[in-house]
Each structure stands twice: as C-alpha cells, then as structure tokens.
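in:
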C-alpha cells in the first residue's frame, strides 16, 4: 500500500484537518499520480456538510485533480511516468452498460464510482479525493492535461470546466446563439470563457454588478444584475440557452421568461429545495427545463484539448492546505475570484 497524506472532514460540519491514509498499489491498468493541485468545488462543501444526505466520514474531498504520473501498472498503455494528468468526479463505473459503452460514464446504470464520498467497485473501500498527495486510478478514468496548460490552473477544468462544456456543446452554443450564464462563480466563469471561445454571444446574470469588469475580461458581451427588476423586462425572450450555476432558490419562472421560443434553461447548480415551475412558463415558448451532470471521459478529454488549443484556463486563487476551511467560508459568501486551488506541496507542512 502507498502512504498518503490528506485533508479530511472528520465528521459532518467539523472543520477539515490533516489526515493520514493509504492508497492501493497499482494494479495492471492503474496509474499512480502525484497530486500537485486540487480545486475546491462547491460540491465539496455540500458533501462535507452533508447537505445532500448520505455523506461518509472521514471524507477527503476533491475532484479537480491535476498531477504527474509517478508509476504505472504493467499493462498501462495510455500514460507513462512524468505525464501531466488529471482526475475528475469519478474514478470508475461498470464499463459494460450502454452509457459506459457510449462514454457517458457519469450516467452509468450501476452508478459511477465518485472520486470521494463513495465506495470502490470492490464494495468496501471508501474512495478518497484530491485534497491529498497521491491517488491510484485506472487509466481509463485518467485524463491527459495538455502540456501548454499550467497544472494549477488546469485542475478546476476537471469539474468546473467539463460541467459547463458539456451542456454548452449539447445545446449547441456557438455563433448566432445567445447564451446566458447565471452565477459567476467557479462553474459560471468557466461557462463564460468556454461559450465565448465557442463563438456564442455571452451574457452574465449575476446577483450584483460587482463582477462586471471581471466578466467582460473573461469574454462576456453583456452583464446584468438579477437584483434589478428591470433586467427581467429588458431581457424577456432573449436567450437560446441559460445555464444556471446557482445553488440558491431563485424565481425559476422569471428566468424561463428570458428564454426564446424553443430555448432551454439547464440546471447544473443544485438548489436545496425542489424547483417550482409554472406550466405556462414552458408552454408559452415551447421551452425546456433540463439538467446536466459533469461529462463522460471522452468529452472531458475533448474539453481539455479544447482548452489547450484555445489557451483557456480558470482564474484561480492558490491557497495552502491550512487555508481550506477559510476558503470554504469564502466560497459560501461568493467571495472567490474564481476558483480556489490547493497547492498540495503545502500539505506536508500542514500535516
Ligand atoms: P460557486 O463558486 O459558489 O458559485 C456559485 C455562484 O452562485 C456564486 O458565485 C454567485 O454568483 C451565485 N450565488 C451565490 N449566492 C447566491 C444567491 N444567494 N442568490 C443568487 N446567486 C447566488 O459554486 P460552484 O463551485 O460554481 O458550484 C455551483 C453549483 O453547481 C453547486 O451547487 C455545485 O454543487 C454544483 N455543481 C454541479 C455540477 C454538475 O455536474 N451538475 C458539477 C459541479 C458543481 P454571482 O455572484 O455572480 O451571483
Ligand atoms: Zn465539482
Ligand atoms: Zn455503466
């Protein structure tokens, strides 16, 4: 077994603290990765605080992992020692169902194996995530990070990047399309950069005007505050696509009214309460309300290559491991510009 050090939530809502554990030795198809950077996703906070129920502790969160290959199992063909690689939200799946066969492992019939807060396919070993110095993952669930992308800024692409890339592609964001990104946080700011690179006209809908300059710098064409009632009259029937990254309860019908005929509103954020929607908000414009979950392995690789080609990286604030709890509080207060990334080299001092 391989000794690992990490940062773990020992129990629900308790502050994260240094934690020692072990990773498996590489099997035939495994890649051992020295983790260099790990992004902090709002989903880490939801799960460390058991806001979705069923959380398992101790929990080492982290599913935006970027690192360097330390060792490979004897049958690994895709990666070699020294390669820059990433791991996203899942580390395995059944591999045989229709969705796995199609590369949509996130929808595996048997349930994907989450990178943390889950159980490995042996049915007993808890999975532990990226707030740690090493991880062992089957090569089929490892992504290649383009050499021109710095590893620290590449990390958030593994969740925030793919979570926006996938719906933008699925709902055909591109030239001639008006796309709105609701919420300019970790996910939202990637949505702006990606939609802009795809050639769409991008609008940011933010709860205040504070982030306007940043959004324009990222490629947004327009910026509106949702706290201003006029925004909703001005933008009625404007968008082909709205992607909602907010995890708070909002007036869903008001946003549906901003969509053109045949347009769609896609939820990626996870609000606490069920989403109440009036039938007329959809009927009157043949509108769709949909959801989207990260992306499969082939699409995640496609997204990384797209970011490599267009030089797209998130805006990050690098932190040392002992600042994780503080960073959580700042994410909750929307005080993040625009993704915290843990420098894993600082784990040793913290442990
Ligand atoms: P984040 O960085 O905290 O961003 C969320 C943004 O929501 C904030 O920056 C803020 O943007 C807006 N917001 C915050 N409080 C608000 C309020 N009271 N009312 C309206 N808007 C508010 O979080 P994230 O990491 O991007 O994650 C966002 C959500 O997506 C989380 O629920 C997370 O669990 C979920 N998620 C889903 C998937 C998926 O596959 N579907 C993947 C990853 C994460 P403004 O300041 O611009 O308003
Ligand atoms: Zn995430
Ligand atoms: Zn499957």
């Amino acid at each position: 077994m391989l000794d690992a050090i990490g940062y773990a939530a020992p129990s629900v809502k308790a502050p994260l603290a240094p934690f020692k554990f072990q990773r498996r030795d590489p099997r035939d198809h495994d890649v051992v990765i020295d983790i260099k950077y790990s992004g902090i996703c709002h989903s880490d906070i939801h799960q460390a605080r058991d806001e979705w129920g069923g959380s398992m502790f101790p929990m080492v969160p982290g599913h935006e992992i970027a690192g360097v290959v330390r060792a490979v199992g004897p049958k690994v063909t895709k990666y070699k020692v020294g390669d820059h690689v990433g791991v996203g939200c899942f580390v395995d799946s059944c591999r045989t169902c229709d969705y796995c066969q199609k590369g949509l492992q996130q929808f595996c019939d048997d349930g994907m194996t989450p990178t943390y807060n889950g159980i490995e396919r042996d049915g007993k070993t808890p999975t532990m995530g990226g707030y740690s110095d090493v991880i062992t993952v089957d090569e089929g669930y490892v992504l290649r990070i383009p050499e021109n992308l710095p590893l620290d800024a590449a990390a958030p692409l593994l969740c925030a990047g793919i979570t926006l890339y996938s719906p933008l592609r699925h709902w055909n964001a591109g030239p001639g399309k008006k796309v709105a990104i609701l919420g300019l946080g970790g996910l939202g700011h990637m949505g702006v950069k990606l939609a802009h690179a795809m050639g769409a006209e991008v609008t940011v809908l933010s709860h205040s005007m504070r982030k306007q300059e940043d959004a324009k710098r990222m490629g947004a064409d327009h910026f509106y505050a949702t706290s201003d009632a006029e925004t909703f009259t001005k933008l009625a029937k404007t968008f082909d696509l709205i992607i909602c990254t907010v995890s708070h309860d909002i007036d869903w019908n008001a946003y549906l009214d901003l969509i053109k005929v045949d347009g769609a509103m896609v939820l990626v954020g996870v609000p606490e309460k069920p989403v109440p929607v009036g039938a007329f908000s959809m009927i009157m414009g043949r509108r769709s309300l949909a959801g989207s979950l990260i992306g499969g392995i082939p699409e995640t690789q496609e997204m990384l290559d797209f970011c490599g080609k267009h030089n797209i990286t998130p805006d990050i604030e690098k932190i040392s491991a002992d600042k994780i709890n503080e960073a959580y509080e700042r994410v909750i207060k929307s005080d993040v510009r625009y993704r915290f990334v843990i420098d894993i080299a600082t784990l040793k001092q913290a442990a």
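note: The pocket of NAP (ligand 1) is lined by residues 41-43, 46, 159, 163, 183-188, 206-207, 211, 245-248, 250, 268-270, 292-294, 331, 334, 336 (CB under 6 Å).
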